[in-house]
Amino acid sequence: MTNMGLIHSRSTVGSSNIHFQFTPKYRREVFESKKVQAVCDQAYREIAQKLGLIYHAHEFGPDHDHVFVGNTMKYTVPYLVQRFKGYSSRKIRAECWDEIKDKLWGDSFWHDGYFHEFIGRFTNDSMKYYIERQQKKHWTDEDYDYVKYQRHQYEQKKPSTTKPLNLTDWM
């Protein structure tokens, strides 16, 4: 990770850091595969380098990812989303088809939507804290294992014999 400080160009000084969160179609847990993570990360790095962005950080939840990039002032948010999602989708499908074929179908890897947030100046310590806090609930929290188990149990039951789940059971 790098320090998210001010960027100096010929006529401007500023901070243009964006946090994106992308989710695969059907919110499937494709990022449990280390190979899929590695290919996605490499695709993002290649796009960031091609566009002249600063690649601050990239982290994964089992069913989504977060990417933090800087020096984005030359581009619109939709343009950046198209580049990151489009290139990574093609690369993941080409190199990781065996890992994802049972979880996805059709022509899309990513869900159509996304989350973005403009970020002020961060230090490495504050970025590390943010990432660890966000990721803890995805990978190490016992509640995640419980929710995953509950989803599995729910999917195994026939809809006609299954009573509706209380929303608090999923949280």
Task: Furnish the topology, listing elements before pairings.
Layout: E1 7-8, E2 13-14, E3 17-22, H1 34-51, E4 54-61, E5 64-70, H2 77-95, H3 97-100, E6 115-119, H4 124-139, H5 142-156, H6 167-170
Antiparallel strand pairs: 1-2, 3-5, 3-6, 4-5
Helix pairs in contact: 1-2
Summarize this structure as a short list of keywords or feature phrases:
single chain; 171 residues; alpha+beta; four-stranded antiparallel sheet; 6 helices; globular
What does this protein structure show overall?
- The protein has 171 residues and is an alpha+beta fold.
- 44% of the residues lie in helices and 18% in strands.
- The strands form two sheets. It has a four-stranded antiparallel sheet with strand order 4-5-3-6, sandwiched between helices.
- Strand 1 (7-8) and strand 2 (13-14) form a beta hairpin.
- The longest helix is centred in the middle third of the chain and has 19 residues, at 77-95.
- The two termini are 32 Å apart.
| Share of β-strand residues | 15-25%
Work out the radius of gyration: 18 Å
Give the terminus-to-terminus CA distance: 32 Å
Please, how many helices?
Answer: 6
Largest sheet: 4 strands, antiparallel
Principal-axes geometry comes out as globular
Provide a compact summary of the structure.
This protein has 171 residues and is an alpha+beta fold. It contains six helices and six strands; from the N terminus they run E-E-E-H-E-E-H-H-E-H-H-H.
